[in-house]
Design brief:
Elements: E1 2-5, E2 27-30, H1 31-37, H2 40-45, H3 58-100, H4 107-145, H5 147-162
Length: 163
């Protein structure tokens, strides 16, 4: 996507623009290339915010990954137990209410609604595929650049799930 800007700070790899008048010059900027060169974290964390492998020792990276992984795994375990209890308890209450005659289920309508939801979900997954693939590619690139930190995180996450 190419846009025209009147800003001298934004440079482009395109050909030099032709001035419309003597006072003003405009440049055509490729936004995808600009986003690659000026990533948001550079503005937030500074230009030295590259991969962790360049900044910390292997031991520090493993410890950082392990601690954050353990915390994430522990929270995942606790939240998962609470969610499973809530969903299972709700299902149990609905079954008791159905068996006692408090609730009558129209299974034909349920089946129709489930089929409708399946069609809608299938249509939406085709639309969301490029964004999901882009996210997966970014995550894979992050893991490749920070393999020591990532392996520490996975180990800590598994220990957090087990504790």
């Amino acid at each position: 996507m190419d846009l025209t800007y009147k800003n001298d700070d934004i440079l482009s790899d395109k050909d030099d623009p032709e001035p419309e008048s003597e006072d003003e010059t405009y440049e055509v900027v490729d936004l995808t290339e600009y986003a690659r060169r000026h990533q948001w974290w550079s503005m937030v964390f500074g230009n030295n915010s590259g991969p962790l492998a360049e900044k910390y020792s292997v031991t520090t990276q493993i410890m950082m990954g392990g601690v954050t992984g353990w915390c994430a795994g522990y929270l995942f375990q606790r939240v998962g137990k609470i969610a499973a209890t809530a969903v299972g308890g709700g299902f149990l209450l609905l079954q008791i209410a159905n068996h006692s005659g408090y609730v009558q289920v129209d299974w034909k309508k349920v089946e129709k609604d489930v089929n409708k939801a399946k069609k809608h979900l299938k249509k939406r997954t085709k639309q969301a595929a490029p964004e999901i693939n882009s996210f997966i590619e970014e995550a894979t690139e992050f893991v490749k650049r920070n393999i020591v930190l990532s392996s520490g995180f996975v180990g800590g996450f598994l220990l957090g799930l087990a504790s």
